[in-house]
Each structure stands twice: as structure tokens, then as C-alpha cells.
Design goal:
The protein is mainly alpha-helical. The protein is built from seven helices and no strands.
């Protein structure tokens, strides 16, 4: 018996495959900084130093970290281009969030910090390494703006995940809780900036890994749904 294929099903499956591959690769590249600092022994305390500090102007390895961010941003932008409103993105929130996240990540790369901001912490043993008598550049200030925009875009992606897979009848507890947990980690990461004793670097790394895992599962589930829709 010949199966009925929904109009646009083949095109949506093709786009879903591109979106899944790009989103998975982008999530992996987004977490490369954590692997890099572990393998290369980059000299910042991961408990208190934020990931963006790996690309500060005074870091010899900043180009490596920036390359990973550019690759990640490019993948998210490709995923955005493969998310056409009317398929699995009826309100356009997914494509808008993916595009905003990719663009803001590129903004991060183009606006590096002048020096690791954790050196400003009163209790930092490396406080003395902050450049003396140096004015903060516009790039240093813009970095906070682009990071905030990336965080806002990630909330949009979490909302898409929860709407499409977390709140559906029969969803597993893991998928129901994934977006709220990652959102909680993002909120905790922002709150931890108030004091180095709250280990903002460690919390941010947990959020980064959680967000990347959510993106990978999003890609896998979205692809499976598109394949099932084509075979109906």
C-alpha cells in the first residue's frame, strides 16, 4: 500500500535534516571552550572565570576560542535558515531565536573583553594582573550587551523546545524538565555574578553544557518528527 505523503513533507524533512545537523554541530562547537581549557590547561580558574574571558585581549589562546564561537554561530545561522515558518515553526519563534543566538555569538567574538573580568573580584588571587591605568574600551562594554542578547535568544530556544516536546502528552519527565532546569541554570549563572564565592564560572559551564544538550535533543526529536510526518 502506497503511503500518503503530506504536502511539503519532503521539503520539510530535507530542511529538518539540515537543521538537525547544524544545530547539533553548533551545540558541540559552543561547548568547545570547556574542553579546550581542560585539554590545553588555559590559565583561568574555571570556578570563577567566565567562558568569555578565554577570548580576552590579553589571552594568547583567544583566537582558538573565537574560532570555536564563530563556527558555532555559523551553524546556528544555518539552522535558522532551514527553519521556515509554516513547517515545524508555525510562529517563527524557532528561526528568530536561532538567528538571534547566532548573530549575538558573532557579536561576542567581535567584542572581546580587554582582560578577564574575574581579575576585578576582590578575592581573586590574580587581581594584580589587571592592566594598570588602562581605560575600558567600547568593545569591553559591548560584550555585555551581546552576551545578554545571546542569553535572551537561548530563552527563546528553550521555549520552543518546551512547547514542541516538553508539554506534549506522554512526554518523559526528562523532556518536561529539560527546559525549566536549563532556564534555572541560566538564572543561577546571572545571579552568581554577584560574588566570586558563588562560583559563577562553574555555574555558567553547567548552563552551557545543559543548553548544548537541550539543543542536541531538540535536533534529534525534531528530525524524528519530520520523518514521521512524511510517512503518514
Amino acid at each position: 500500500m502506497r503511503k500518503y505523503r503530506a504536502p511539503g513533507g519532503v521539503g520539510e524533512l530535507r530542511r529538518a535534516r539540515i537543521r538537525a545537523a547544524a544545530l547539533g554541530a553548533g551545540a558541540a562547537a559552543y561547548s568547545l571552550g570547556i574542553l579546550g581549557e581542560a585539554v590545553l590547561g588555559w590559565p583561568l580558574d574555571p570556578r570563577t572565570a567566565m567562558l568569555s574571558e578565554l577570548a580576552a585581549r590579553d589571552r594568547w589562546h583567544r583566537r582558538l576560542f573565537q574560532c570555536g564561537d564563530v563556527a558555532s554561530a555559523g551553524c546556528y545561522l544555518v539552522a535558522a535558515g532551514a527553519s521556515r515558518p509554516g513547517d515545524s515553526d508555525p510562529r517563527g519563534l524557532l528561526s528568530a531565536s536561532l538567528a538571534a543566538f547566532g548573530a549575538a555569538t558573532i557579536g561576542d567574538v567581535l567584542s572581546p573583553l580587554d582582560y578577564p573580568v574575574s581579575f576585578d573580584d576582590p578575592g581573586s588571587p590574580r587581581r594584580g594582573e589587571r592592566p594598570e591605568n588602562s581605560a575600558t574600551s567600547a568593545s569591553h562594554g559591548r560584550h555585555y550587551v551581546t552576551t545578554t542578547l545571546a542569553s535572551a535568544a537561548s530563552v527563546g530556544l528553550m521555549a520552543c523546545y518546551w512547547r514542541e516536546f516538553g508539554r506534549q502528552p506522554g512526554a518523559s519527565a526528562r523532556r518536561r524538565l529539560a527546559a525549566p532546569v536549563v532556564l534555572g541554570l541560566l538564572a543561577a549563572s546571572a545571579a552568581s555574578l554577584a560574588s566570586p564565592k558563588l562560583q559563577p564560572g562553574a555555574v555558567q559551564r553547567l548552563y552551557t553544557l545543559g543548553f548544548s544538550a537541550l539543543c542536541v535533543d531538540f535536533a534529534r526529536r525534531d528530525l524524528a518528527r519530520a520523518a514521521a510526518a512524511q510517512d503518514q
